[in-house]
Each structure stands twice: as C-alpha cells, then as structure tokens.
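for the writeup, i need someone to sanity check this before i put it in the appendix. the sequnce is what the collaborator sent (i think, or maybe the updated version? ugh). structure was predicted straight from it, no edits. if anything looks off just tell me and ill rerun, i have time this weekend
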Amino acid sequence: CPIYQDIKEGTTPAGIEYYLPLFFERTETLFDYLSAEAVFVLAENALDAADAFWQQALERYDSRAHDIERPILPVAELYLPPQELRERFNRSLRVEIVAKGSNAHAVDLGTQPAPSLPLNQRGEEPAQELKRFLDAYPGRVLIAADSPGRREALVEQLIGMDLRPKVVASWNDFAQQPPPPQRDGEEAKLPDFCITVASLDDGFALSEPALTVLTDRQLYGERARATRRRKHAVREPEAILRDLSELTIGAPIVHADHGVGRYQGLLKLDIGGDGGEFLSIEYAKGDKLYVPVAQLHLVSRYSGAAPELAPLHALGGEAWEKAKRKAAQKVRDVAAELLALYAQREARGGTAFAYDRNLYEQFAAAFPFEETPDQLRAIEAVIADLASAKSMDRVVCGDVGFGK
C-alpha cells in the first residue's frame, strides 16, 4: 500500500487528513470547539444538503471500499451522520432561515431586498434617485464598498454629486455608533448616511430598526460575478510527475543540488527491504542519481538553451557550484545596476497625471467580472503611481493564459 509506505518513511501523502481516525482514539467535531452558548444560524435547506452529502459519501464508499492500495474509511468514522447532526443542533440555540410561508411557526424578521438606486453617470443629476430615497427614508443608510480604494472612490464620486456620507470603520461601528454630542434642547441623532468597507454580494433592508445597506449592485446595476479559484504556489508531487510525464528519455533535467543531467524515467527500487518509486537521472561518465518521489521538489525541467545544447554535469564536480556562484554574482550585478538606475530616476522625478474619478468609475462599472483582491490592490497601486510625481516603474503580471 503506497500510503502505508509513505507514512512509514515519514512523508504525508495528499489526503492524509481522511485517515485521522486511525491516528487518534477519538476525533473532535466543530461542536467540541464551541461554547454551550453558541447560536447556530442554518441557511435554508442546510439539513437537506447534509442528507444529500451523506448519500453521496456512502455511494463513494461503496465504489472505493475494495481498493487495497488506497483504502477509504467508513463514512461514519469521518463525518457526523445527518441524524446525529440534527441531535447536536437540537441541544443548542439555533436560527433556521426558511422560505416565506413554508413554516407556520416562522417569524417574519422584517427583511427585504435593498432598493435599486442606480447612479446615472450620464444624466444631469446622476444621484437623483438616491437623493430622493435619502430624503424620504425614515431610517439610516449604509453603503458597503468592496475595498478601501473602492470606498474612497465612492466618497469622491458622491461628494461630486453633493452627497457626503460619513466614513465608519465597520458594520459594528455603524450599528453601535453613539449619537454625537448635541447642544441643549437638540434631539440626539445618529448619522443617517454612512459608508464602510464590507464584502457583501447584495444589500438588504430592515423594518425595525429602519435601516438599509446598499452595495455596488444597487448603485451601479447588476454586474456579472465570476467565481475564481485561488491558486497557491505549491509544487505537489502529483503535479511534478504530470510535468515530468511530458519528458522523453534523455531530455535535460535539473536537480537543485547536483545540476543538469539526463532524464531516464521512473522506476521502482527495493532499498533496505522497502520498495519505492524513484526518478532516475544520468550524469556525466554514466553516473546515476535516484531521486525518491518524496524529494521531487528538488527536480525541475531544464529551461535554458535548446535541449541539445544543455550542459551535462558530473556528480560531485565543481561545474554546477561554479555555475550557481556565477549566477549569484550576475544577480548582484543586476541589483547594483537597478539601484543606480532607481537613484537617477528618483533624483529626476516624473510627471503626475490628473484623472477624473467619475469617468474612471464609469469605465470600471462596464467591466463584467468581479475583481479579485489582488487585482483591486494592483489597480489602486497603478492609479496612485500615475497620480504621483515619482517615476513609475511597475509591472503587473498575472495568470492570464497564452501570450501573457
């Protein structure tokens, strides 16, 4: 069993967390980490989703239970059965969100969708509908921006429309904000129009207390939102093997400690009574290096000159160390040149460009996707560079496919 062999060697293969019950007498659940006073909020059909997941897990177990190389544990050893999940919830305070009219015992909390109050960028009064709403609405209004940069852009834009929201740090500050000091005889009143940073997909309104939260969707209309997976720069052994599977026998390959050799394929070796899979690399004079799968992070494809011109180093030789020292020296030389270049540019200064925030927001509103946090930070940084008198030298790179 490869998993058993990996654990025996002290490595942790992918998915090892699914074998935790084998390493501990008992495993904890989320309930064990929460206090007895915790209040659970269950989304609509959450328990039905638990039933569906349980059924899918049982079906997977039935199809994979006989795999002797990667055996899987019974579902009940890894997850709480739906009935036990319900029993745990029944011991705690909880709020269940249900569709209106689906339960005779449900309480209407007085929530409703936020009104659509689009800013007409091309009209004579872009914020006419928002102003009418603020004048007639008896409660408080909060605008939720996606990021600090977006908040500042909205504040500038609203000020240009003769609207001045108060900036608050968070939702809690808005909800719990004490009234400002008042003069004698004046009624204490909270700021009724505020703005903060909060990542909300959509706004909402409450009846008691009267309160409305608006997002970009209410101010700029519907925008398509693309769900994006975050990629982490981690070299998994499986990914490395897939990468190496594209190599042909004899192709140049690099080991971080021994230099450039020639790929000879994957093979299984029995060392000290323990079998395992190794990557074979041939060096000068026919010397062979066998790299265990657990150390594949030290191996990469050769990406220098044409493969037929790639060097062939000798195991234990000085050529690879000299090449690394020479590369490090070149890095230091380039760093020194860059420092000198930046000193010259700093002394000379640059041009500060002025830009119209309203026009920029019109342009940004036409973008049909949701920016990632990294993209938003890059956008704000580039705008700040352009508006600064300091020479701009920024390169924005991303995983955008071919031709990037």
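The chain is about 35% helix and 15% strand. The longest strand covers residues 259-271.
thx in advance!!
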